[in-house]
Amino acid sequence: MFDSIIQKDKELLIFLNNLGSEQWDSFWLLITNQFSWTPLFLFIFYLIFKTFGLKKGGFVIVSLIVLVTFSDQFVNLIKDSVERLRPNNDPEIQHLLRHLNNPQSFSFISGHATTSTFFSVFMILLLREKYKYIYLILLFPFVFAYSRLYLGVHYPIDISLGILMGVLLANGYYFLFQKVCNKLFV
User: Fold this and answer.
1) Whole-angstrom Cα distance, residue 100 to residue 85?
2) Number of Cα atoms under 13 Å in the Cβ half of residue 104
3) pTM, full prediction
4) Does residue 117 contact residue 167 with C-beta atoms inside 8 Å?
5) Ramachandran class of 53: left when φ > 0, alpha when ψ lies in -120 to 50, beta otherwise
6) Residue 13 CB: number of other CB atoms within 10 A?
7) Distance between CA 159 and CA 13 in Å, rounded?
8) Hey, how many other C-beta atoms are within 10 angstroms of the C-beta on 171?
């Protein structure tokens, strides 16, 4: 059964990846680059300082740095434990994919999907009472994660479980964050 799931995962990736075309390649290469999202991050930082002020806002920013660092290292631990080849390195399917870059690290789970979802859900939990449109930030992890399928560097399961992991981590981190904030900023 597990082999069947893995095979369907590969087939779905091949299908999704081959929907791409050269005219869109530069767009998706831009989307997958985390630095391309700098305006979004600056806007979020603005909302944080506007909502929480300088002192607590600074604490939130430091917490975000810890969040991203933890998420990245946690994902790397999983990748190095599971050791699933990236699709672009899988001899069984690499010739069937359009791939525009060739990362050599392992595939499971997607760091892009995990960290962007973790960040976005955490921001929603922090800012939802003040900004009703903050939920639009969920477009970020979905578009960011899809770029990894388009580029042929992750499987759909890597992306799906990365998103799930991001949601779980964000909720846990938010719970801890609230406890710390209640003690520091009474």
Assistant:
1) 17
2) 0
3) 0.90
4) yes
5) left
6) 25
7) 11
8) 13
Query: Domain ranges in the chain?
Result: 45-184
Q: How many CA atoms lie within 13 A of 141 on its CB side?
A: 27
For the chain, the straight-line distance linking the first and the last C-alpha, in angstroms and rounded, comes to 53
pLDDT tens per residue, range 146-179? 999 999 999 999 999 999 999 999 999 999 888 8
What are 117's two structure tokens?
């979802």
Band of pLDDT at residue 53, cut at 50, 70 and 90: very high
Tell me the angle at which helices 156-184 and 111-127 cross, rounded to the nearest 10 degrees: 40
Helix (H, G, I), strand (E, B) or coil at 186: coil
The helix/strand count (H/E) of the chain reads as 6, 0
Q: Which two tokens stand for residue 33?
A: 């680059």
